[in-house]
Amino acid sequence: MGSESLMSLHSTQPSFTASVEHRDAASPILLVCEHASNAFPDPWGGLGLTDAQRSDHIAWDPGALDLSRALSARLDATLVHAPVSRLIYDLNRGPDRPDAMAARSEVHDIPGNHALTPESRLHRTEALYLPFHNTLHGEIARRLALGRATVIVTIHSFTPVYHGQARAVEFGVIHDADDRLSRAIVADAQAKTDLGCALNEPYSAADGVTHTLRLHATPYGLLNAMLEIRNDLIATPEQVAVMADSLAPVLQRALLAVAEG
After folding, report:
1. Which of 17, 51, 75, 183 has a C-alpha 20 to 30 A away from that of 124?
2. What is the CATH number of the domain that holds 239?
3. Is the model's pTM score more than 0.85?
C-alpha cells in the first residue's frame, strides 16, 4: 500500500488548488485554513485508512473551516482554504519535511504513506503543495500590488487529548519570527474573554508548524499569527458561532493595539 503506481503518476496529473472565498473583502486580514478538508480523492484514495480514521483529527482540523468561514463573515475577510486531507499532503509543511506525507500520525499508521518513492513525493508536491501555495501567494501579491494592508492569520484546531494526555489550553496563539500580533491577541483574549489562552501552545515554531507564516508573511514583513482552537469547542454550528463572536473582536482589537505600538 506504499507508493502510487508510475502509471497513476503519469497518466493522471490532478491539480488541487486552494479555494478562495470573498476575494474582494475589505479587511486587511487574510485568513488561511491549511487543514480544512478530509477529502481523499484519486489517485491517492483512502491511504489504507478506515472511515473512522479518515474522519478523525489525524486527517484534518475538525471545525477549522467552519470557524474560518464564520470569522471571514464577521471580519469581512478573504479566506483561502485547502481541498484535501493533510495525510495526503500537509500543506503547512515544506516538501523537505518527512511529516509533509506522514507515515504515522499520533498512534495511527498511515499505510498509503509507507515507503513513498521520491517520484511519489514529487507527484504529491506538484499536485497539492505547489498549486495551494501558488494560489495563496497570488492573493497576497495582488493585495500588495494594490497597496492593501495585509495580515496573515492561519486557523487550526487541535484535539483535547493527545497521546493520552488531556490539554487544558483552549485557545493557543503561535508565532514565528514576528511575535507582535500573536502577543497582542493573547493579551486581549486573556483580558476580555473566558478562554484559556496561551502563547505557543499546544505547539510552537520549534515543532515546525509555522511553515505557511514563514513562507508567505515573513518575506514581506507582514503581521501574522497562527490560531489553534481546541476542537471540542467548535464541534457544532452553535459553538462555532459563539467562538467566532468572541474571536473576531479579539483580532480587531489586537490589530489596533499593534498599530498603536
Report:
1. 51
2. 3.40.630.40
3. yes
